[in-house]
Design goal:
Elements lengths: L31 E8 L8 E8 L2 E8 L10 E7 L6 H8 L1 H8 L2 E5 L21 H16 L2 E11 L1 H12 L6 E5 L15 E7 L23 H11 L7 E5 L2 E6 L8 E6 L20 H9 L5
């Protein structure tokens, strides 16, 4: 799935690479053990740290970005950024520009790495890959570990992912809703039979109608899913029902971008579907031009979460 490097302006490659799609994972769950840290910068509070968790005998890693002085005024929000299958943490750093957004918005970003670059997020590609709960446990351990080294606002933890990373974000919200305030799913579907979030979670989904990897209208997805994926509209409507939303209050059209918004949902949560007419399978960014550059996915997600310095 998608989540690779964003091409520079003028590049002949006009989309983030989307070869090697989907989920599944050989993760092993359990309690975290010792965590190690290495940094790309000096000082006691490095901007970038690479941390390691020992999870039931398996080493798991994540990249942690902390803007300078972000914790000076108290606990701050945390965003988990989930890469697509076959893509890397560093490719998502480049494609999403979340580090830049974090510096401007005053939040911290953790980029967990899937084993073999494959997430175990639902009914695709999981045969022989171990317990389906493994990656959910790993992501919860990442939250716990970040909380030991940074001052995190536990009421403002979010997960955002592209492609398989977005599918993984849905699973995390379904199974660990008590840890999350919201998720963002870009070019993704929800591949779960059961979803019973323990607490209402806000959701923003961004999806292109010409997505050839995770089709907007549902059906066969790349990566060998064992059954068809639901349509983007069905996923969001299902989530709106799960969190007790009334009928959508707003439908807004701006060029190729149509937004449907549900507000007044349980616990003050919200749900939003952003449809990009003609958009493909990528992390949407203005560098692409229309239609894939009709919006900046990072800006849309952080605005929805209300992430900004106060």
């Amino acid at each position: 799935m998608n989540g690779g490097r964003r091409p520079r302006p003028g590049s002949r490659e006009v989309r983030v690479r989307s070869a090697l799609f989907l989920l599944a994972l050989v993760a092993v769950a359990g309690c975290s053990g010792d965590a190690g840290t290495s940094s790309s910068t000096g000082g006691s509070q490095p901007a970038v740290a690479h941390r390691q968790l020992r999870v039931t005998g398996t080493d798991r890693t994540y990249r942690l970005y902390t803007p300078p002085d972000v914790e000076a005024d108290g606990p701050v929000p945390l965003v988990l950024a989930l890469h697509g299958s076959g893509n890397t943490v560093e490719s998502l750093v480049d494609a999403s520009e979340l580090d830049t957004a974090a510096s401007a918005g005053g939040f911290i970003v953790a980029y967990p790495e899937a084993i073999g670059l494959l997430w175990n997020a639902g009914f695709c590609c999981t045969s022989g890959r171990g317990d389906p709960a493994n990656d959910v446990q790993f992501l919860e351990e990442v939250i716990n570990d970040v909380s030991t080294v940074r001052r995190i606002d536990q009421t403002r933890i979010y997960a955002v992912g592209v492609s398989a990373g977005g599918i993984m974000a849905y699973r995390l919200a379904c199974e660990r809703g008590d840890r999350l305030a919201g998720i963002g799913a870009i070019a993704a579907s929800m591949l779960l039979d059961d979803c019973h979030p323990s607490r209402p979670v806000s959701v923003i989904a961004i999806h292109g109608t010409a997505d050839g990897i995770v089709p907007y209208e549902g059906g066969r997805i790349a990566g060998g899913a064992t059954r068809p994926a639901p349509a983007a509209t069905a996923v969001v409507e299902r989530w709106a029902s799960l969190v007790g939303c009334p009928d959508p209050r707003l439908t807004e059209v701006r060029g190729p971008v149509t937004t449907r918004a549900w507000t007044g949902c349980a616990g003050g949560t919200r749900v939003r579907l952003v449809t990009v007419d003609g958009g493909g399978h990528n992390w949407f960014h203005p560098v692409y031009g229309l239609p894939n550059g009709a919006l900046h996915a990072t800006a849309a997600v952080t605005e929805f979460f209300g992430l900004g310095r106060r």
